[in-house]
Amino acid sequence: SNPSILILPGDGIGPEVMAQVTRIIDWFGEKRDLKFDVETDLVGGAAYDKHGVPLSDETMARAMEVDAVLLGAVGGPKYDDLDFSVKPERGLLRLRKEMDLFSNLRPAQCFDALADFSSLKKDIVSGLDIMIVRELTSGVYFGEPRGIHKEGNERVGINTQRYTESEIARVARSAFELARKRGNKVCSMEKANVMESGILWRDVVTEIHETEYPDVELSHMYADNGAMQLVRAPKQFDVIVTDNLFGDVLSDCAAMLTGSLGMLPSASLGLPNADGRPKALYEPVHGSAPDITGQGKANPIACILSFAMALRYSFDQGDEATRLEKAVEKVLADGARTADLMGPEDGTPISTTQMGDVILEALDAS
Ligand code: NAI
Ligand code: MG
């Protein structure tokens, strides 16, 4: 049978950008004989409107069964006053938690045509291609004890940075595996100088490296220096592996090296199933963009590149993933720009659908 994909377009611009991905999935079926069994369902506010919950049990069960989940975006002003337990974001959190998606892949890749968009000088980012692997299911966002307590006559807010050896080991393996398919280089970031969890992190990463991945080049860096280096000389890195908190900050920092939010894909991977495919969720980094929803302005590239990651990491179709990425690169080089990729004086932008059109044409010509 064909590999299966569950599409969850979600809210706001989610359905608009996902519509372009659906066209591209169809193209691969027709032109490359790469057929997928695709089903579409609700998540976030759209699921709340129909079911009263941001992710139904049935949808959750399907997400566990399919080979990959593609998600658009969730949330929007309509849902801002909902109770926390049914907020759209909870749908996404439930997917991440129950699928146990511990390895969050955030590429920061600079397309030459957009190098002027970077917050940095062109020669610092031109040709940049790095991957940040962020641990996503543990660390200070989840550790116990946590809470706000009264201590004497003032309150104290508490969170706990907590990592087990196995949690560190599995995300380290995921980074080393990735590095083998890329530049064969991993830089692990923590703060072993001031944190116990950092000392353990460095220990475990070193041990996994020595025993399982001695062929990959490993270095360690304190995360604060890592932030400096990302801005000073980002091309020194290939794969960066780091914990949940540092990864949150460092990946947003790396994102701005490359320009618009509308360009940034991500993958969240779990443990491999029996067939060797990891549980996987692919989604653009951006949100539901209520300010431009329904206007045909959304850039679909982040969502399209997320599907390219699915081709590579879930379906073992690295060459086809590259074909799609090259098509995106080509249309950008030819000057195709949605509104987020241009200044106010730069002429007329193309629409979401038109960006889909030119990418399909570039695929046809590939
Ligand atoms: P956002 O990412 O939705 O938008 C930030 C800015 O970037 C807006 O000006 C928007 O128009 C622009 N933008 C975002 N994606 C774009 C694209 N593809 N093309 C062109 N422009 C784009 O973040 P914001 O405004 O903070 O949040 C809006 C809603 O999205 C909130 O309800 C938030 O909770 C939710 N959200 C959902 C996420 C998810 O589903 N993973 C992630 C981040 C936010
Ligand atoms: Mg963040």
From TrEMBL:
* A Pfam family reported for this protein in Swiss-Prot or TrEMBL: Iso_dh
Cofactor binding annotation: Binds 1 Mg(2+) or Mn(2+) ion per subunit.
User: What subcellular locations does the record give?
Assistant: Cytoplasm
Looking at the record's lineage, which domain of life comes first?
Bacteria
Query: Which cofactor is essential here?
Result: Mn(2+); Mg(2+)
Q: Does the keyword Protein biosynthesis apply?
A: no
Which Gene Ontology CC terms are recorded?
cytosol
Q: Which InterPro entries match?
A: IsoCit/isopropylmalate_DH_CS, IsoPropMal-DH-like_dom, Isopropylmalate_DH
Binding residues annotated for substrate, in chain numbering = R96, R106, R134, D224
Site positions for Important for catalysis: Y141, K191
Q: In which pathway does it act?
A: Amino-acid biosynthesis; L-leucine biosynthesis; L-leucine from 3-methyl-2-oxobutanoate: step 3/4
Q: What is its EC number?
A: 1.1.1.85
Looking up Gene3D superfamilies in the UniProt record yields: Isopropylmalate Dehydrogenase
The UniProt entry lists the main location of this chain as cytoplasm
Q: Which residues hold NAD(+)?
A: 76-89, 287-299
| GO BP terms | L-leucine biosynthetic process
Per the record, what are the reactions this protein catalyses? (2R,3S)-3-isopropylmalate + NAD(+) = 4-methyl-2-oxopentanoate + CO2 + NADH
Q: Where does Mg(2+) bind?
A: D224, D248, D252
What is this enzyme's class at the first EC digit? oxidoreductase
- Domain Isopropylmalate dehydrogenase-like span(s) in chain numbering: 4-359
What's the stated role of this polypeptide? Catalyzes the oxidation of 3-carboxy-2-hydroxy-4-methylpentanoate (3-isopropylmalate) to 3-carboxy-4-methyl-2-oxopentanoate. The product decarboxylates to 4-methyl-2 oxopentanoate.
Q: Which family does it belong to?
A: Belongs to the isocitrate and isopropylmalate dehydrogenases family. LeuB type 1 subfamily.
Q: How does it assemble?
A: Homodimer.
Q: Which HAMAP family match?
A: LeuB_type1
Name of the molecule in the record? 3-isopropylmalate dehydrogenase
Native organism: Litoreibacter meonggei
